Amino acid sequence: MAPPKLKVGLSGLGRMGKRHALHFLNRTPRAELIAISTPDDVEIEWAKQHLEPFGVTFYKSYEDLLAHNGLEAVVIASITSVHADQAIKAIAADKHVLCEKPLSTSIEV
Question: Which helix (H) or strand (E) holds 36?
Fold first, then answer.
């Protein structure tokens, strides 16, 4: 029996977000990208072309992503100014977090 895959969500589909998404789809056998969130319509269009064929769910709201059934981990590749807030929300929702640098734009979160 194959080991279970980590169910991953991704916030942001800019340059690094797209790289993370494709990496999880093609190069990470023990993880499965199940959902993404982005408020950007251009990023949603990219996702429809590259992620929808793999059954990835799209959300405009980060909070909706965190509520996705079965989600275990979140990759934060959104704009820098929301990294800390999104990481804190994911931790509060009992999710594993991988956050792009920098974690925050201020020492006071």
Answer: strand 31-37
Whole-prediction pTM value?
0.93
* 90 contacts 76 by C-beta, under 8 angstroms: yes
The letter for the amino acid at 39 is: P
CA atoms within 13 A on the CB side of 37: 21
Question: C-alpha 19: how far from its chain's center?
Answer: 11
Question: What is the per-residue pLDDT across 47-94, written as a single tens digit (0 to 9) for each?
Answer: 999 999 999 999 999 999 999 999 999 999 999 999 999 999 999 999
Q: Are strands 6-11 and 96-99 parallel, antiparallel or unpaired?
A: unpaired
Average pLDDT, the chain: 96
Neighbour count for residue 65 (Cβ, 10 Å)? 26
**Unique residue bearing structure tokens 């793999």:** 54
Question: Alpha carbon of 5 to those of 73, 74, 91, 104, 107: distances in Å?
Answer: 11, 14, 20, 29, 35
Percent helix, strand and coil across the chain, each rounded to 5?
40, 20, 40
